[in-house]
Amino acid sequence: MLAGKHILLIIGGGIAAYKTLELIRRLQDQGARVTPVLTKAGAEFVTPLSVSALAGTAVHQELFDLTAEAEMGHIQLSRSADLLVAAPATADLMAKMAQGHANDLASTLLLATDTPVLLAPAMNVRMWQHPATQRNIELLKGDGVSFAGPNEGSMACGEFGPGRMAEPEEILAAIAAELADGPLQGKRILVTSGPTHEPIDPVRYIANRSSGAQGAAVARALRAAGAEVVFITGPAAVRPPEGVQVVAVESAREMEAAVQAALPADAGVFAAAVADWRVASASDRKLKKSKDGLPVLEFAENPDILKSVSQMKEGRPGLVVGFAAETNDVVENATAKRRRKGCDWIVANDVSPATGIMGGSENAVTLISDDGAEEWPRMGKDEVARRLADRIAAALAG
Ligand code: CTP
Question: 32: closest CA among 91, 96, 97, 82?
Fold first, then answer.
């Protein structure tokens, strides 16, 4: 996946630095070459010897290192890579970057570079939440810097919250997304995903069992194939993929507005399990128990997002792909659904509880198009997504 790519990996000072050793391994497994840079604080957590042994090359540590300068000056070092990654990226490193400081090797490399930069922040939760850190992140995003994580969870310091460094696998996915030069380069694709929540009152809602796993996998695969992805997601159980533009929504109507705002696009993949109905007049106060009997909820029909995009007269994406969640007569129902909605393809799946597909990690789908129904064997949702991304790439190229 990363064959021939060169990563300049800056290891900052944080307990998460041990995970970066694993990242070096994973990058090499993917065929990437890693040039490691260890900051002074980073060397308090992992040794130069373990870093260079894993990377199979010398580790750079000093700004004023005559031997290193004689071999490759730091300016050249900062530009010879395809991507600069800092993991863990500390609050201090990000502050230096945001202000343009260059007082050690890591900050100098980051200032002197003209290659893309990806940061995997790791710090105490209060440091992460501090307005100064958040301000720096906004500045860095504005400068075009990308981020992987941080994750939420319990931390080495005993606190809980955002600030844990993303897992090596997640950083790897973000790196792959940054370096994607696949067949969907230059294509803009929107993906809807997850369930929608339809409010009953301010504290209650109607939902469904979609985890958002299939939609997230599709977005990840499209991004890995080089597409610019707008990922419009309801309240899903899985994390959105790295490297995509995330638009978080709750209800079907919010999802529709987000889709309209994200157009135009070369393709749209509608994997969300959108609620067909909403409560006609959701209460703006919490419904209370009353002697007068049970509340009666009246429903109104939600907009059909897939249908309205499929039937757009102007600005319709070149390829519109729907999903069909069925519990019986899958191919028959999905074929009729494709015709009714007017989309180009339907990815149909059987969501009866016995299949374990809804909320599970596997899927068994049938791709329905003008060419008929093509049954795919049961496989991981990631694999379904990769195959679909390949098909989409072929269709958009043709
Ligand atoms: N969909 C949508 N907007 C809706 C309902 C569904 O965009 N209001 C999309 C889904 O994202 C999916 C496809 O339409 O791509 C089919 O969803 P599904 O729930 O299977 O179909 P329904 O339209 O709900 O049809 P039915 O109730 O007949 O199963």
Answer: 82
Pick from 192, 218, 233, 306 the residue to mutate for probing ligand 1's pocket: most ligand atoms within 8 Å of its CB: 306
Ligand 1 contacts (CB < 6 A) are: 192, 252, 270, 272, 274, 276, 302, 304-306, 322-325
**What is the sign of the dihedral through the CA atoms of 327, 330, 332 and 337?**
positive
Residue 159 shares a structural domain with residue 199: no
Q: Pick from 300, 305, 215: which is nearest to 256 by CA?
A: 305
Which whole-number Å values give the CA distances from 55 to 26, 105, 163, 193, in the listed order?
A: 11, 18, 26, 38
Residues 45 and 90 in one domain: yes
Residue 1 lies in a domain: no
pTM of the model: 0.72
Could you tell me the distance, in angstroms and rounded to a whole number, from the CA of residue 307 to the centre of ligand 1? 9
Residue whose CB lies within 8 A of the most ligand 1 atoms, among 270, 331, 350, for a mutation test: 270
Domain enclosing residue 334, as ranges: 188-397
Q: Check whether residue 233 and residue 155 sit in a common domain.
A: no
Number of domains forming the structure of the chain: 2
Structure confidence at residue 65 (pLDDT): 75
The domain that contains 239 carries what CATH number?
3.40.50.10300
Ligand 1 centroid distance, CA of 251 (Å): 14
Better-scored residue on pLDDT, 387 or 224: 387
Q: What is the pLDDT of residues 142-160, one digit of tens each?
A: 999 999 999 988 877 778 8
Q: Tokens for 133, please give them.
A: 């850190």
Residues 172 and 200 in one domain: no
Domain co-membership, 203 together with 253: yes
Atom of ligand 1 nearest to the CA of 346: 15
The pLDDT value recorded for residue 3 is 87
